[in-house]
Amino acid sequence: MTTRTLVLTSSILGGHSQALAEHFSTLAEARDGLAVTHRDLIAEELPHLGLAELGSWQVAPEERSAEQRELAARSDEQIAELREHDVLVLAVPMYNLGIPSQLKAWFDRILRAGETFRYTEQGPQGLVEGKRAVLLLARGGQYAGTPLDSQLPHLKTMLGLIGITEVETIFAEGLSTRQQESALEEAKHAIEGLVERL
Asked: Which cofactors, if any, are listed as required (predicted)?
């Protein structure tokens, strides 16, 4: 049985998070039973979500205009791709204590009421089942476990909204300090162990 993995990168600098994603992909592609799909959210940048696109989701597919079909396809295609894979790998740099806007634009297409989650009397219920996620987080400073790490809770909450609650995190921190080399090596070693478990 093949485990299908979707790797998303979102670094405008093509920096450390990209290197972590490439390390993961190289190892995964060399293993039998693992298939890897790459999506570079910088090279294939999605525009910010606008009212016309949001409105296209509210129109039945058979009733959409040509423009609405084109707009709705942005979300439909991203959701279909996510559903086709078993493991989602997000390689994420930290920008201004958050995630890149390009990655947020992807999430804005994925977090879609009626498609990937629904509202119930008990609160939102995720509709994307049987998936797990890996977060490869590259940071210039040391943020993990501190109040300044608003990035990790945001990512886990968005994933949890659609039903992805099995999330493994690998940090590479202090990359703007003299710890850079050791931090990257430690993260790559953790990735090697992760790939062995997939």
From this structure: FMN
**Which domains are delineated in the chain?**
3-197 (3.40.50.360)
97 is in an annotated binding site: yes
> What are the angstrom distances between the C-alpha of 70 and each of 2, 8, 67, 113?
32, 23, 5, 19
Residues 6+ apart with CB under 8 A from 55: 68
Distance CA 135, CA 152 (A): 9
95 is in an annotated binding site: yes
User: Which two structure tokens, joined as six digits, stand for 83?
Assistant: 């559903």
127 marked among binding-site residues? no
**Is the pTM of the predicted complex or chain greater than 0.85?**
yes
pLDDT in tens, 146-163: 999 999 999 999 999 999
What pLDDT digit, counting tens, does each position of 11-30 carry?
A: 999 889 999 999 999 999 99
Q: Binding residue per annotation — 56? A: no
